[in-house]
Amino acid sequence: MQDLFWVNLSQPITLTATHQQCGPIVTESTTRIQECLTRLTTLLEERSLALLKCAQFDTALRDAEAILKLDPTRALGYLLKGRIYASQGRQRRAIWQYDKGLNVDDGNRELWQRVAEAETWNNKRVDFVSRLPLEIVSTNLVPLLMGDDDATWHVKRPCHYLHVSKTWRRRFMLGNLQYRVDDTKEPHYPRQLMQLSHHVHSLQIDNYGMHPDFAFLSNEGHLRKISVNGISSVNDTQFLACLIGVRDSLKYLKIELRASSWLNMYDVLQVCPDLEHLTLCGASWDKDEPISASYPSQQQFLRPALTTLELRNLQIPITHGHALLLLEHFPSLRSLVLCPCHDSSFLPMVHSYCPFLQHLEISTFQYTSTFASHDMRRCIDVKSEQQDCLRSLYVQDEDGDQFDIEHVRTLMINNCETLETMMLSVGTQQDDSIPPPALQFPRLKRLYYHPLGDAILRCFGWWVLSHAPALESLDIYYDALETCSLLLGAFRGMQQVKSLTLRTHAGGMEHWIPWRDMSAHVQQLNVVVPPVILKAPVLLHGLGQLKHLTDLSLGKRNHVVDAGDFLNLATHLVTNCPDLHALDIKFSTSALYKGVILFSTFEHLERLSLRADNLSITGILYFGEYQKLKHLTLYNTSPSMEDTLNDLQDCSPNLTLSRASL
User: Among candidates 469, 412, 414, 411, which has minimal Cα distance to 445?
Assistant: First the structure.
């Protein structure tokens, strides 16, 4: 919607009542206002063109934008902006501005001429890539333009990078070109994929029932990774047949099974014996036919190539016998995930069967927490030959009655020297005994501590907090601090934690948090609590005590905060947390625009993340007023916002703008 304030201000005024002296004054004043605005527009145009010749592009754009605000009904502002972009070599952006101007004045000959010139330059191609060394193209140029190490193209969104040059295409033969088949009703693979099949290294199929046959990808033997969803009893046999064609190159396989499928992991590994990574979701052990029936001995089914095995969302939980068979058959495992698993007795023996195991996840839930699981797997080194070196451990007992804590304790103590990341969510009906004072976790840096302590269960593993001198990141349920006095004492004694995440089971914040004890070291704080807690005095007071706080994240995507409570929170942050460098707000509130205005007063704010669906056009454009903001992330943007986001990017060329979903 155009802002016609200045245009209307200079329009002739029709007087409803005449006056002998006032009529001429109104007419003459209006004429002078028109002359002033015309003169101002002319001066801005002259200065913008002069700045353009001096290569002062940002300032020239500012003057062109001012002309548009003075009179958006004229094409002059769009013409100037287009010329500035064209001088920068941004021909597509220039054409976009010229088109806007033609919508206002389609008879403007200069605009049509500029469009033709920009299109000519935009269509001109110089194959400089072929003249560069392949190493430069592979390691510098392509990752810089794509933004990540991998290129993904979809059915409806072809990857144009493949057509830049032959040298560019050669790069993909050495890299990780991914192809994703969306959940579409089109049963055939697109022609482009078939033509470039020998470049594809990774394939993702959202609905295998619609896209069953990918055997044509086996020609060149480059396909290394497949992620497929929708395997059922109707098509699982055909899926195994397709795997035969790509098994020589395939190293990574992730399968999402539907409830009707009884596809066995051993059937998959029989077809693809050289797999290094297998993830099976929704699989089931057949009660009538134990998994060892077809492969009675270890020697008959030894798969030393497999380094990662993830069994998630199993219909039948893993037992002690199942776990031992898996360990026997896959001695080279570096990472093992079993969900759900209802037996912990095999834990002390894992390195007897799998001496290279580095990451272990067991949970009585069908799925483990994705945010913790993904973070924990970062420390895995699949090429490491070091034995008895567990680096990350994830143990989660839903009701606190499935796992024997002595098995868990033994595993932790046996690997205390090497553990770097742990997630503990285990309860015990007896008080957890204090370990020997000499026990230390010298390498433990990240701890997710989600105890199940309540009136019946006790917190297991509280002592880890006081035996981890290198701990830097802690994710904890704060209401457990009141349940376990030993945990509270260990929490207060920590002086090295820099990143803290606070969660809650109960939903209140009556529990006292030792903010003052954390004020000297906590720099990053993530508060994942219900909206009612965000206005609690104990939280607001605590935030003000964290004198070294630089990064703050608040709320969850499904939270809605009252406008008054949000403004109170925003005012408190601006007043008591002046040194914030990064702020991330995921909850929804109707008063977010006022918060945007308040947050602009932060002197050091460089990174900001907010919900776009709570902001108007004016609210989004206001980010251009931020002086030191370098990176802005907007959640839940919509296609209708793209013009506004482009305008924001034009006004703030040094601002990195990202879009994300919640």
Answer: 469
pTM for the whole structure: 0.73
Q: Which helix (H) or strand (E) holds 618?
A: helix 617-621
Residue 301 lies in a domain: no
pLDDT at 296: 39
Residues facing 446 on adjacent strands: 421, 473
What whole-number distance in Å separates Cα of residue 372 and Cα of residue 446? Answer: 10
CA proximity to 662, closest of 608, 566, 607, 585: 585
Phi and psi at 349, nearest 5°, equal -105, 5
Crossing angle of helices 57-70 and 76-87, in 10° steps, is 170
Give me the mean pLDDT over the 261-265 stretch: 75
d(CA 13, CA 240): 80
The yes-or-no verdict on residue 641 having pLDDT over 80 is yes
Q: What is the tally of structural domains in the chain?
A: 1
Which of 99-108, 184-193, 315-324, 432-441 bottoms out in mean pLDDT, i.e. has the lowest? 184-193
Per the structure, the complete domain to which residue 105 belongs is given by: 5-122
**Taking 80 as the threshold, does the pLDDT of residue 270 lie above it?**
yes
**Any idea what the CATH number is for the domain that residue 66 is in?**
1.25.40.10
Q: Could you give the CA distance from residue 537 to residue 586 in angstroms, rounded to a whole number?
A: 21
Indicate the SS3 state at residue 161: helix
Residue 286 has pLDDT above 60, yes or no: no
In the block, which residue shows the tokens 């009675």? 296
- Determine how β-strand 427-428 pairs with β-strand 458-459: antiparallel
User: In the predicted model, what is the mean pLDDT of residues 602-615?
Assistant: 91
Buried b (16+ CB within 10 A) or exposed e, 618-633: ebbbbbeebeebeebb
Q: Residue 291 — pLDDT band, cuts 50, 70, 90?
A: very low
- Chain segment 123-154, per-residue pLDDT in tens: 876 666 667 776 676 666 666 655 444 445 44
DSSP 385: -
Q: Would residue 209 count as lying in a domain?
A: no
Strands (E), 307-452: 308-312, 335-338, 359-363, 392-396, 421-425, 427-428, 446-449
Contact partners, residue 386, CB within 8 Å, separation at least 6:
356
Q: Which residue has the tokens 């060394």?
A: 133
Q: Count how many residues are written for the chain.
A: 662
- Does residue 58 belong to any structural domain of this protein? yes
Could you tell me if residue 633 is inside a domain? no
